[in-house]
Amino acid sequence: MNEPAKIRQLDEVVVNRIAAGEVIQRPANALKELIENSLDAKATNIQILTKEGGLKLLQIQDNGTGIRKEDMDIVCARFTTSKLQTFEDLQAITTFGFRGEALASISHVSLLTIITKTANEKCAYKASYVDSKLKGPLQPCAGNQGTTIKIENLFYNVATRRKALSSPADELSKITDVVTKYAVHNPTVGFTLKKHGEPTPQIRTPHVSTKMSNVRILYGNPVARELLEVELEDTKYKFKVHGLITNPNYSNKKLVFLLFINNRLVESSSIRKMLEELYTVYLPKKTYPWCYISLEIEPQNVDVNVHPTKHEVKFLHEDSIIEKIRLALDEKLSRNSGSRTFYVQAHLPKTDITNDVLKEVLPVDEKDKTQKLHPKQMIRINASVQKLDKFNFTVHAAVQDARDDDNKPTCSKSSNILQNEDILKIDEEEKDVKELTLEKSNTPWNSILDTTPAKIDSAVSNLDRSNENVNRDENELSLLDVLEFDDDDFDETKDESMKKDCTDVIADKARQQIYKRFGNTNSQEQNDPKGSSPFEELESSTPNEAQTSVAQTSEETAKRVVPEFKSRSINNFVREVRLTSVLKMRKELEDDCHESLMHILSELTFVGCIDQSSALIQSGVNLYLCNTTKLIEKLFYQIMVFDFANYGVIKFSVNISIDEVIITLYVAFTFQEPISLYDLAMLALDSEEAGWSENYGPKNKLAESAKDLLLEKADMLNEYFSIVLDKKGNLKSLPVLLEKYFPSQADLPLYVLRLATQVDWKSESACFRSICKETARYYSHISAMHDTHDWKYITEHVLYTAIKESFYPPKNFAHDSTVLQIASLPDLYKVFERC
């Protein structure tokens, strides 16, 4: 018969180690207890140092009240505390600690050292503890006010627990999580977490901060910018709630939940489940929010003595309180779920030589020619497809206001100046413009004009003849261009090595054709090491050398096949321009052309207008968002340069009185007298866009000076820019840059003022350039009023049609979001799983 086992009382060391294993389960639990002790000691700065995830070393230093010298003997004994005296005190406990087990448990499973100093002590004292007992006498030492606790070799005497722990990296991650949560809840306490041997801390928060700021520091701006603040107070159940929760714009693969009840970091499965169910209405499946909730309940309604690690608590009326919290959170979320914000990465037009481009110039196998065209590669363009305007597409008012503010520096608009375009139209009787010449006249302007030598004549003509053979359509690139070999290259009698090098020859030919088509910066730099302009060389060379130089330039231009800019002149005769400054401006535009972007715009299909400053286009299988204002301003500048001295003329069919203008802005347009430059300048100075202040002087004197300056340059403005001014100081005509397009009259006064103030009149090159820029700037303001069509029709059928026909987009347009790829058909097929 088996005898029952004898009951024995466990040894005190065994009991203490078992208890220590319940309270201190891992380094993060020990740190949590020590942080709470520091907060109880009114610390405002807590510094933590770890080594090997806290297993080798875990040190915490604070600037709290410290520990009195006479209490050092029993500070690590079990059930010793300064927070509690009787059991009834638990009903009103407001501190974190109350059992007096934390330091005792730590001393039983590690080597514990405490250095502390109070405000009344002259020096700090150091003590070491083993199994909750003081090891040796106290040692005086230097130290700051507060307490430093050093834990070394945690679980050195509990081998099974040490082996069961995760890797040091995982333990450090759990320590970081604890520090992060306490840092968010205690913004008036500075936290620093540092890994031993590393100069940069893992966590650092200021000791004077806010919860929102600490969230931004610790969790990043994506969380902080989506936070909603929740406040709730209930007198029936005597609780308060302060919360920070993310709105429906934010979602994560894992729920991040910070719960503090009476300032204690705890867990509640009931509240966690409530949050998960609540957000299923607002977030996609299997995505979760970020939530911080601080719940303050009457201490007598909370039972904190539920779990050895104190990470769980129980409180009265739990179901009712959770339901009230759920209703408050649901109300907050429902009021902020009307809109969604999506942050996307900008896609710019690609410019690199890709595999698709290489396939166009490299040999293709016969079997590849019959490959099936997948739906994701098909370009769908149908003239009968409805436009975007069909769906009444509009822009939100707030977004429109923001765009208007962004465009103010470059697109100034005045609602008080000339808001009807009926006063500008082409005089049908004067469409036939006589042939003009560039002979010198007796005007003051001719004193600064370049006298172009005769060698330019032959040089430019050679350049034109060379370009005739160069400007082929880029689609004409074929295998014949690549495989241009002599018959001897394939002679069977040649050496066998020649046949082996055939592949290399093909590759070299392909590379050359690619460089021809896309340009090669390195090769250009080698050909022109000095980086000098070909026109500068022409000015210092002989006529024969000039012809040779331009011929070489033509050969270099052949490597970049840029099509000739299409003239928009409505004149019957085109006069040849030989001014060096104008030729240089044209050359600069051609050299700065981004060929890939030009190819995109040349194949565009207009989708629809978003507003006056932006529109959507399709090119190939991609959808692009275009900045209309920047595109047409550059377009008009190029027209000014390439059609220099060949513009049509907008004549005012009825003379205009400026006094009458002010009256007729709001009624019918009836005009009696010419437009006065003086009055236009005065109107511009009265507008906010002019930026006039008393420091500049009286307005009337400024307006008179502007009129006198423009009259002085009247012959040049008429000769080259079709801006006609009469001797009385009246504006009679403006240039026609695009047929069927007239600029906004509201900006005419500011344009006249800027011609007088923003143009560099001292240098020919700078003068021509600035006049072209100011005119392009003025013409880029699309008028909202038109005789027969609205601004949307003008944008689609006049402006973007002109961009498609001929436009040199500058290289910076590929990087400043002027043309921005927002969708791609192959990528959409990937998203919707249809490929």
From TrEMBL:
Residues 519-530, 540-555 have a biased composition (Polar residues). Residues 517-558 are annotated as: Disordered. One of its GO terms (biological process) is mismatch repair. It is found in: Nucleus. One of its GO terms (molecular function) is ATP-dependent DNA damage sensor activity. Keywords: DNA damage, DNA repair, Nucleus. PROSITE patterns: DNA_MISMATCH_REPAIR_1. Pfam families: DNA_mis_repair (PF01119), HATPase_c_3 (PF13589), Mlh1_C (PF16413). SMART domains: DNA_mis_repair (SM01340). Its main location: nucleus. GO terms for cellular component: MutLalpha complex. InterPro entries: DNA_mismatch_repair_CS (IPR014762), DNA_mismatch_S5_2-like (IPR013507), HATPase_C_sf (IPR036890), Mlh1_C (IPR032189), MutL/Mlh/PMS (IPR002099), MutL/Mlh/Pms-like (IPR038973), Ribosomal_Su5_D2-typ_SF (IPR020568), Ribsml_uS5_D2-typ_fold_subgr (IPR014721). Residues 215-334 form the DNA mismatch repair protein S5 domain. Gene3D superfamilies: 3.30.230.10, Histidine kinase-like ATPase, C-terminal domain. Belongs to the DNA mismatch repair MutL/HexB family. This is DNA mismatch repair protein Mlh1 isoform X1. The gene is LOC108630727.
